[in-house]
Specification:
The complex is a heterotrimer of chains A (311), B (440) and C (287).
Chain A (H helix, E strand, L loop, with lengths): L1 H19 L2 H26 L7 H18 L3 H23 L4 H21 L1 H4 L5 E2 L6 E3 L3 E3 L4 H24 L1 H11 L1 H6 L4 H21 L1 H5 L1 E2 L6 H14 L6 H19 L3 H15 L3 H6 L7
Antiparallel strand pairs in A: 1-4, 2-3
Chain B lengths: L8 H22 L22 E8 L6 H20 L7 E8 L4 H15 L3 E4 L3 H7 L3 H4 L3 E3 L5 H10 L5 E3 L5 H11 L7 E7 L2 H17 L4 E8 L7 H8 L5 E4 L3 H13 L2 H4 L2 E4 L5 H6 L1 H5 L7 E3 L11 H14 L5 H20 L4 H8 L3 E4 L2 E5 L6 E2 L4 E5 L8 E6 L3 H4 L13
Parallel strand pairs in B: 1-2, 1-3, 3-4, 4-5, 6-7, 6-8, 8-9, 9-10
Antiparallel strand pairs in B: 10-14, 11-12, 12-13, 14-15
Helix pairs in contact in B: 2-15, 3-4, 7-8, 15-16
Chain C lengths: L1 H31 L6 H18 L4 H22 L9 H23 L15 E4 L2 E4 H23 L1 H11 L1 H6 L4 H23 L9 H16 L4 H21 L5 H14 L10
Antiparallel strand pairs in C: 1-2
Helix pairs in contact in C: 1-5, 1-8, 1-9, 1-10, 2-3, 2-4, 2-8, 2-9, 3-8, 5-6, 9-10, 9-11
Classes of the chains: A mainly alpha (311), B alpha/beta (440), C mainly alpha (287).
Amino acid sequence: MKTKLAILLLIIFLAVLPAFAGKYLLYVTIHILLLSIFSLGFNLLFGYTGLLSFGQAGFYAVGAYGCAKILLVYPSLLAGILGGVTLAGVASLLLGVLCIRHTRIYFSMLTLSFGMMIFSLAWKWRDVTGGDDGLVGIPRAPLEVPGIFKINMAAMESYYYVVLGLSLLAIYLFQRIVRSPLGLTLQGIRDSETRAACVGVSVRKYRLLSFTIAGLYAGLAGALLPPLESTVTPPVAHWSHSAEPVLATLLGGIYTFAGPIVGSALFYLLKDIIVRFTEYWLICLGVIVVVLVMGFRGGVVSIFLKEGSRR
Amino acid sequence: MKERKRISRRAFLKTAAAGIGGMTLGLKGIGASAQDKTPAKAKPARKALGVDVIKLGGQGVISGAHADYGWQIQAGAALAIEEINAKGGVLGSKLELKFMDEELKPAVAVKNARYLATEWGAHLLFGVDSSGSAMAVGPILPELDRLCMFVHASTHRLTEELVAEKGIKQIFRIAAPVYQEGNLAALIFKEFPNIKRWAGIHCDYEYGYSAWALFKDTLKKYRPDVEFVSIAWAPFWTMDFSSHISAVMAANPDAIHATPWAGEGVMLLRQALMLGVFDKIQAWFQCMGGSVDILEGISREVEAGKFKNKLWATARYIHNYPDTPENKKFVESFRKRWNRFPNYSAENAYSTIYVFKAALEKARSLKTADLIKAIEGMKIMTAGGERFFRPEDHQAIYAVPGGRVVIDPKYPIPVLGDLKVFPAQAYYRNPPFEPLKMGK
Amino acid sequence: METLAFQGLIGLSVAMYLWLLASGLTIVFGVLGVLNFAHGSLFMLGAYFAFTFYGLWGVNFWLAIALSLLSVAVVGYLMERFFLRHIYNEDHAYQLLLTFGFILIFDDAVKMVWGGVAKIPAMPSFFEGTVSVVGRPFPVYNLFIIGAGLFVAVLVWLLFEKTWWGKMVRASASDREMAGAIGINIPTLFTGVFAFGAMLAALGGALGTPVRVVAPGIGSAMIIQAFIITVIGGLGNLKGAFVGALIVGTLSAYGILLFPVFELFLIFLIMAVVLMIKPQGLFGGER
């Protein structure tokens, strides 16, 4: 009951944010929500299934470019988002088949390769992706269902509500996933692959499922980007972007539900505030990462939950 | 091993509470005010523009192999602001600068622009080193209702597409664009009948593609006998150009056209020397070789005559041209203040501030629409010469020569000498603009 | 024909340079089981230290290299002894994350100490000449790098195959527990190996100073190539790293000559294919 109250309060807070927040604050919050979705998906793979992917940005990029290409010819927000997410899902399913046969270092390196292959495609395939200039002039298309309603998205506030709504939906779905038998199975596989196999679980099938869901989430986060920024450029696919959900989740707490979300907010806010005062934000972030890994592997959430740390 | 699947209610509450508390504090830290920061009226009626301080938000790249350029932008702008404030500011209001790192990443440049305009309260924006960042920042300017004077980003698309075609009037560019690399070079080398075979070593991104495409297009028009025999592409962060150099040299070119810039440019030239290139070719055009960091980097080699007088270059401003009192004064003040020669980013930023001053004085308003009108069509004398802001594409028209990299006893670092000066109209592209075909 | 031969020789010098970089990475993985993301940062530090000794303080070039190696060995020692050592028993992911944190720290640290602008030292005069190869001038410097790479390969092989220390290292690599049981001081050994790997990285960085940009971030730019090489050759396998470097170096040189649209894509594709078909790399031998 109390948990539900807390969550409700948080949602109300976010819902009324536009009433007292400035434009930049809204912009930052939207970015935090995007990173949260991105990180949640990542953590399904990492925290719950035990697979560390360094290529999630590839699927984020597929979602982003997919949505952008659609919006450039058919300016309907729903079409763009659905299209981007679907493409990302397909990509992660196909690449997942190739990746999930391997684990640990090899899995990480393989995902890194695929992510960077997508990056170099985005950079080189000028005709389709616009090359290093990227796609520009992407409209913040109206949210419409033809014949039923059409809501203009030009104001940041309107788009904020769309992103907030989709984020809450994504978080709710995620909760359902991890509380379901699927979620338990994934954790079982993470804890001991052999034991899970002995019990009759098709390890590969479940890993692939986890990988695809992570890809869908990355794709959703990516698809929500172009209407916000009106441009999509290749760095969204780079491995340094893949590192963001990793860092955010580490910061928040890997083996927790809320970790990626808390971590995303912290990560984004930290960077935003630090760069105002100093150009040396990398070392600040680096020190935080080292401190966390050395002492607080459960992340911030574990500091509040005594038992947050897995080992 | 402990079960980790459920989070206890109490624990979650604690986290949520902490989270909300933290977020509120954090968000408060970010957005101190309830509404957007618009240029507010501080004290009634004292200053002509209605504010005590005019805020200028700038950005450039301040780390990595290209870090000098961001530093130069900041240095040039800071110098201009100091000078202007010392004389009482603009219409009585002082200028204040905030400079941020764009990290050569469009996403960061966009975020900085948003932050500077909506949070920090910048009245005017300037800067941006990379073309990709410029193309990303340009389209959001109408939403921010701020104009931005682009100081380095050289892509022709910024002005040709975003301003002339798409009508984003908030975009202005004070720096000479890629016409320097392409068209000016063609104008210089059309006069060398013995140079027929050209090879290119170029950046493997839009900058390299457009420079090479423009150069080939224009040169071919004047010299149909010219051949382009080889090309090598070098991505960002190429540190070893020996494969590229030896690949193009295999085709026996008479001359080479090259775009890698900043630290990469210095190393490219050094490696070319190591490969004996300057014994074989007749000329090497290092596009932005006139930039101070490159001149400093190769000064020992130039002094020793290693380039055999075959190294040519241009820039978006060179400190020894034009020979006017304005330019001399600028270079002297810059050297006194920063102990270095100004490169083109510095001059462009310095002149930007003075253009802003002129616009503010002319419009007597902080409104973006008024300032746009003031700068459009403006003819203003700057350190780099007289600049004219063409209304069709908001590009500043001014001439920068190309020349050989030589030692001049008057200067401690190499300079461009044997200058080939062409009026800007001769080599700038003019509207209506045809899209540039950039093959590979 | 001469063109191909010449380009191949250039490719060989590129390969040997890459080998210098990859050797330390693969040794550290082979013995400690740690994939050191920050290996590129150690490379970068090697370049910066060499620049300081040689370019700023005018120390003799070779002495500057030696000093740079020592300095980075100290950095490596500190990294391993006080940080890495404490998380050997944790999930591999934490090792990656920790070393990633170090990348961030080092990238800014060099900026704070040396400034963000690229550093350009004077060119040592003994690197300036050329020798004629198939009728074209080939730089003495590139010959030197080929020599240095081969020398290091032989040295490392001798070290691990013929010395007592090398034997202990190999024993610890193949069975840490047993080696500890027979009295090898594993922690000290590991620190030593890590410092050695750091020195190899620094060697690459230091030797590159006269001709390559010294700037923040050059480490991260190189680390991906190092990963690719070690993966292709087999993580932990020295012979594999050598061959992997040869492959990547010469392919890249020929790619630039023959396929000017040579893609980053291709390199990652090769890594992906190797990982999918034979994850242990060309020379097998997963630890």
